[in-house]
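USER: I would love a firmer grasp of how sequence relates to backbone shape in proteins. This is the protein in question:
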Amino acid sequence: MTIRRRTFHRLALATTVFGAAPAAAQDGWPQRPIRIVVPYSPGSGTDSHSRRMAQELTPRLGQPIVVENKTGAMGTIGMAEVGRARPDGYTLLGIDSGVMILPHLVRSMPVEVGRDLIPIAAYVFSPMGVIVNAASPYRTLRDLIAAARAEPGKITYGSGGIGTSPQLLAENFASKVGATLLSVPFRGAGEAAQALMAGTIDMLVATPATALGNLGPGGRLRMLAIGSETRLALLPDVPTFKEAGLDDFVVSSWISLFAPGGTPVAVIGRLSREVVSVMNTPEMKAYAEGVGAVPRVAVGADLAALMASDTARWKATIDRIGLVPQ
């Protein structure tokens, strides 16, 4: 059985609780405040989206939801804290789609997704796009691809570091178009965006939020294509990758909630339904669209398939570029 199939079957079992009826033993949940651990620093996209979700879930669950930042070790410190927490529904993990990358980069993961961490829901899908300097000679995605093919290794791209999703997606993009790009790692996505505006790198693969204030008419950056199914309301002039000439390149970063392994099915089901309800409100749809994201939500089998697909993508890219787990 392939890695993708093993992952899908495990996650499918872990996420088939969306429609589950509440169990009698869990009728009283929650009876005290809930904690969401975010393994990244305050102010990060994951932190901001987790706090907004906590704000929306609080009145629905009838208990305060507190977000705590537990940073370090590429996010694995916070992951381990939740994975080892009591599985009673009062400690949750708020993390981004990078959770599917870490098992391929960290040799000794302290917890395992699908066993120690059970997925609840993924929400706020931020499509990744190719961004260049507004003064760049690459006016279209085809221009960039042609230049990259003509001079292998000349086109430079920035990212927030080796093994981050923007870096891996840039390599995934290069592989798909038959080009070779030169990686220039920075200490964060914001620093990479600053380098792009300064003209010291040629391109960046990132979410619109990374460069939102500098995109659009009169901005210092230009997005050549976006990895969504349709154009974003916030960036109506930016074509999808398919419109720009690259099929089958729909790529998004997403935020998700996880619970410790062993958390009651009824609790997982209740949380899944509440996240779906929150994401269907006009307020949350407007919030997601306002940061250049899609107000999509994935639970149950859809979430299992999404995670299995991302796992396969990341593993194939990591193997191709030769990153070795540390």
Remarks:
- The longest strand covers residues 117-127.
- Residues 300-321 form the longest helix (22 residues).
- Residues 129-226 form a domain with the D-Maltodextrin-Binding Protein; domain 2 fold (CATH 3.40.190.10).
